[in-house]
Queue: 2 jobs
Job 1
Amino acid sequence: MNVLKQKIAVLLLAALLLTCLCGCGGETPAGDNSDAAVTVTDMMGREVTLDEPATKIVALTASVCEILYALDAGDTLVGRGEYCNYPAEVLEVTSVQSGYDTNIEQIIALQPQVLLMADMAQDDAQIAQLEAAGIKVVVCDAQNIAEVYDSIKLIGELVGKQDKASAVVADMQATFDEVAQNAADNSDKTVYFEVSPLQYGLWTAGADTFMNEICAMLGAKNCFDDVSGWAEISEEQVLQRNPDYIVTITMYFGDGPTPQEEILSRAGWQNVTAVKNGAILSLQNDELSRPAPRLAEGARLLHDFLLGAE
Amino acid sequence: MADMLDVQKLSVRLGNLDIVKDLSFTVAEGDWLMIVGPNGAGKSTALSAITQGVDYTGRVLFEGEDVAKMKPVRRAQCMGVLTQSHFVGYAFTVEEVVRLGRYAYAPGLLSNRSDDDDEAVEEALALTGMAAQRKQSVLTLSGGELQRTFLAQVFAQQPRLLLLDEPTNHLDLVYQKQVFSLIERWLQKPGRAVVSVVHDLSLVKAFGTAAVLLRHGQTVATGAIDEVLTAKNLNPVYNMDVAAWMRQMLSQWAADDNTADNIIEEKIC
Amino acid sequence: MNKRLDKVRWWEYLGFGGVFMAVLCLCVCVGSVNIPLSETVTVISNALLRQPQPEGLAPAIILTVRLPRVLCVALTGAALSLAGAAMQGLLKNPLADGSTLGVSSGAALGAVIAIAFGLNFSAVPFAGTMIMAILFALGSLLIILGLAYKLDYSLATNTIILIGVIYSMFVSSAMSVIVTFAADKVQQITFWTMGSLQGSSYENAAVLAAVLLVCGGVLLASAQELNAFAVGEDNARHIGVNVRRTKLVVLITVSVLIGVCVSIGGTIAFVGLVTPHMVRMIVGPNHRRLLPSSLFGGAVFLLLADLVARILLNPQELPIGVVTSLVGAVVFVFIFYNTRKGQ
């Protein structure tokens, strides 16, 4: 029974991980100049009012940190979640842990006006504690690209940088439009996204993931779009579905074979089209998994890869 | 010739407490030595020390050989032990438990059983009257049957010296007599001896040839049974008139005697 | 009159072997991708006869994906089951198992430390995790049993389970600490702890087979001693068993078995609990029959569990530990109920 409990804990951890990596969204009512009170409705439909744009923020999700930096508002960040790692400056910000280890006392001590977090990252009791300490909690949890735009605008409102937010969104849209132009060329191509390598059990990104959405945008087909979210799938199925391209987001730590080399050396995979052609892309920086402006960068990398690998 | 068992200045300390202090005695072939004394006198601890179950100081010699230095297998060939209660975890059959007694003669995997082993097991089963129940699971046995199973195991082990730690403590009076009679019969063959811790003075008197009387770990008296079990020795140790109480017990015994013998006859023959 | 009780009963092994081979064949023939039986037979016979393989997916799927995995699963099941049976005998406790005692968790902790800090003792993949897993399995066993003996010399069921639960909790918090120290590897660690025999290679199978051969040999040679322990530790000492040496040998062997299994397949709970129990119901408690039969039983059980894990949610896979835990929890309650009732 202790093992079951452990299993549950592991599943929770995995779930947390996913929410950490997937994190944010919202809607923006009006808010025009940086001195007036700001009222926003977050993605849980909660209305939050600030007397002025936030100058001290704690962000628990990596994507929110990225958005803040993209809006040139990185200086508002006084605390971050454990797994926030981009851009590099964010690592200098105090970590308040993540998930159920989140250090509520430490957050309160940092005296932020706003805590930004993903849906379900904290329980109601913790939220109540934070609100009692006068910290506004804003939930920001984008599940698709449209919601990423919303979350960027929402955060723009919060820090009084609506214009910058609009510019960032416009930039992203422009990039997506550009890469989508060649979609027709990829119409018969299949891509296999690998999240965890064979050694630890094959995990892929199925439907309802950013990888899937961007893949579709580029006109190619995610060969595991029949499963939902991140899922462990059968090695046999990968061989049978014979993807034209493989994209791996497995982390590389500098020793042993690189993710590409490891996939190329797998026994029995030598007849997979992607392996035969060496068409394997390794993404090391969460470009395709984090609901943040860099999704555009990821889309461009994938686009270039699909074109260039031919 | 050396005595079969020679215990020299045996002491067991637990923390600051002397459980047994400077216990010395010898056991010769044919002897049945009883270690007696009230609760907490250190009887069972002394026996555990002899079987190497607890740490001790002093020496325990078996025919001049230091028991502490014997290999476990050799020790088991010299001395067999029967304790008071057994809880077996799994449904072994009576015969499987008895056959374990032969371990000392062929340990290891490729121990093809010899005819000696089979003979010893059959003899032990017959002697204890458990032959008919050889296929029965030990989990389904009564207390008396279980004790006879382990008695058969120790008989199959064919030791020269039998050490008993209150072997009949939780058995009915009839079965106590039965087990003791079986041991007495076993003792009749030459080259054998018994040392036992027994609570019940009537059994001590009925079966013992020699005795050691302990109190708080100290030896009060040692020698032939009649020299040790005197009113002068016993009354201060037990704080009561032991002789009067025993007379009463023994008369009760006499009445039960026929019944007990009949049961033994039935079971064995 | 003379009935050779603990003689090897060949018909039993014939039966076990037959069932095992049938399940093994089933697991090679059935999988996520549907391959016709005739093609499977062709691929395997060609491989055995060193004939050229036909075009298509079948050779790759059967020879490089399914067969090594099925072999690893069978060997892991056999090893875990043997380890469980040996521990249950040694401790005279039918609920003793790597997972209930917390030994598997301990081994997993060792492996996680190896992953988190990138410990590699040589170029051999898995060597780091394997050695750490074995060391931690042994350390865990010593801690757990040391504590148990101090608290309750008779090692009663309740004590053992309580200590196992507490130890597992301790290990999981230790694991959380490790994860905090190695935040960048959290993803790898998470996926690893879920347990998976995907990606098993023939090398893994060879390592498992070698370890099982050695450890299995040692344990089978200790069958008589384990019988004596199963009757009672004091009784074992009285009939001449070298109690201390036997304990040490069995504990080290069991640790190696569990450590190797955990490092290759992650923690797969309850295999060592479920199969010896079932096998004991068929062949009885005598370890001379129980241990070899447990090898077959464990292999068959885990093969079937893995088959369910592979095909139930096709194309997705279930972690194999989820399947074994589901069955194991039920059997655990059943045994616990029975032992309590018996007391």
Job 2
Amino acid sequence: MSAPTLDRPAAASPDETALRQQFEATIAADHRIEPRDWMPEGYRKTLVRQIAQHAHSEIIGMQPEGDWLLAAPSLRRKAVLLAKVQDEAGHGMYLYSAAETLGADRADLTDKLIERRQKYSSIFNYPTLTYADVGVIGWLVDGAAICNQVPLCRSSYGPYARAMIRICKEESFHQRQGYELLMTMMRGTDAQRAMVQDAVDRWWWPSLMMFGPPDEESPNSAQSMAWGIKRHGNDELRQRFVDMSVPQAQALGVTLPDPDLTLDEAGGHWRFGAIDWSELQRVISGQGPCNAERIARRRAARDDNAWVTEAASAYAAKHAS
Amino acid sequence: MHEETVYDALTNAHDDAGHWAFGTGFDDPLAGVDTTVPDGVDPADLGAYCLMLGDDALVLAQRLTQWITAAPELEEEVAIGNTGLDLLGQARLLLARAGSVGVLGRSRSRATESIPDEDALAYFRDADEFRSTGLVEAENGDFGQTMVRLFVASTVRLAVFARLRDSRDPVLAAIAAKGVHELAYHRDHAARWVLRLGDGTPESHRRAQAGVDAVWPHLADLFTATDVESRLAAGGVAVDPADVRAEVRDVLTTVLERATLRVPEWPADAPPRGRTGEHGPERTGLLEGLQGLAREHPAATW
Amino acid sequence: MSTDLTAEGGHGAVPTGPEVPTAPSPSVSRRDWPLYEVFVRGKRGLNHVHVGSLHAPDDEMAVHAARDLYTRRNEGVSIWVVRAADITASSPDEKDPMFAPSGDKVYRHPTFYDIPENVPHM
């Protein structure tokens, strides 16, 4: 018996046809693929790319809210925000863990992020201008993330699905703390109410864009759906998010910045206006307000502290018995 | 498991609080604790003492928070977050205690009525009303200096809290009983880093030694009791910081030597500075970052 | 316009096109920390269960990191960490010989035995 490591990928066997059939059968039966199973190279690559950019998004996503950690206006809010930003670091780590079961290496993925060879969600390239942004990120951005993430708890790849279950459970407080903050601010001063409305105006459309382009323009989706990596189309999830958010906005007393928002009584869905994709395109092509800053901070964390990582390795080598 | 069920379960309110995450059993450290000020204890002294301990925790938490998104390795990011949250928790309990015994100073007249005491104290006192020490106020420096400072600060605080478990004030005793577990972990974690950096590479050794040398002078005014501490210590409520000097010195020396670091000469005892409201420019900058937003909106609640 | 976007991963839209500017990549010399697998006992009476992995320079720091990451919501009372490289696992190539022999031993399972409904406590 060889001595392979737990949950690390195995090399492909020559008898690929039988293995491929086994893989297809596992997917068809809605069973989970596990790390040491044979899998098509495309499946592995798609997963590594998807999980890595999800992990990168969690890590970069610490920054917009982290910018308010020092100035959080009450000690309770400071503790909540610190716990939340810390969760995002944890979620990034769970996801990097899942990617590593596919043969990826976290340090290498981090390098790819810093060198901009791998991407992260564009939403985090918008700045957080006021403390209301912390609330709106929790409510809308995390709300949209939950819509995207919950179906991933059933992803065909076991380690990814398990990481997502843990993440979804933990994230449930993220959205609630955001909404609670906004409710408190709406009961506060006129200046606070204005801050909330302004933040909603700025984050609503970017939140809708988080679901990605319309299905007919989403070339990778079909294969991902067939592989059980992705469970729903972008438009379906977006609609689900809008339907959830409209009554929440009403309860909060804010206006969503879309004059075309109307309830389709027959279908029970809220119809919304056209999305300005060129705006998103501008942000993700590197002209977003914060792209350079976000990456620079990760680069500094890596490079300025490399001596720490090295020191711990050197100490371990000296004291290995 | 059908996803709609998962989704509903995640987004709908649920009467089982444990449902929200995997963990359960979150305790209120003050549940069932008698909050009346013990006989013969001056509430003003007690409040002033709570401010000293609370401000140290608040300020150190604020300093540690500066590492969030900048720490070496994600593992350490999470560890620093935990330490910061523990200290923030201690600060809130202590500031709330100070407020409850009436020590609010100028803060109460500045903060709107609906702002809780802990926030009135944290956000609406001026720099000269803070009672934190120079040890926790100093800039972070690099990761090595930050870990040396955390090691020193948690060693001192653990020694104090261990004794405070027997305080005649039941609230202080309860806060200390919870705090010692947290502080023991902080001290352990920081000490492990001091060992690894001191005995790691030549560069890390040099940086760790520089950190020790930078932190050391802040030991000078830590072990001289203020009048408040002396009176409360005599009454069995507080700890005279002079009583922990030997223990602290012992722990610091042991760890630094094991880390192959040079132990600087122990500074001569100096009169308390931070504890009496004296402070350097770091405190002003620190408080501007902490208080700016809250003070922009004095009538707001968050 | 929007075809070089995708919505993979929980946080949604990310660009897929290659045109995103690439900064020069100075190589940083460092020694990466080894990978550890983490097992947590949720509460007394339960087995340790694999919860994920992390990187740490050595065993002690791995336990600390596991505590800080995987038990920050009171999820555990005991932690095991082990270097991923030190785990010996069954190989998928040997899947059949390893696991097929137990597949037909249905007599090891309680449902193999028919017991009349009216027999209690069985």
